[in-house]
Amino acid sequence: MDITLIFLITSAVIILFLVIINAFLLWRFNQTNKKIDELLEKGKIKDFKDIFLSQKERNDNLGKNLEEAFLKIKNLEEISEKTIQKTGVIRFNPFNEMGGNQSFIIALLDAKNNGFLISSLFVKEGNRVYTKEIKQGKSDYLLSDEERKVIEKAINPK
User: Which of 66, 100, 104, 109 fits 115 for a cystine, CB–CB 3.0-4.6 Å?
Assistant: First the structure.
């Protein structure tokens, strides 16, 4: 057999095979288009481009909203470190001869144990109120036993 004849037969078989594949692909394309047209005619789906664009816009807005939310959370965390978070109260009697625990100390501290004490001493002549600044759980002023206890109570509640 001549090489030209073999070449022609092989080419014809390949062309026939490609024509069959092309016909199948055209048939599938038409079937898919018919289904899409049915969906569009029945109003089930709008224009696909509009759907994709609106979804992209929603995702962009969601991303912006998440960024804003995380910034607000970070800001609130920074603010909350400076707010009163730890408290302690102790009532006591500074003078054993007088009755009742009418004197008290209140500790008000933030997350870093900074804040102040309010001490109220009840005596016969009246009531005296004092404050002392607290930095990192300590004070520049001399602290009484009760004041040290209330700071410890605020820092380590049990």
Answer: 109
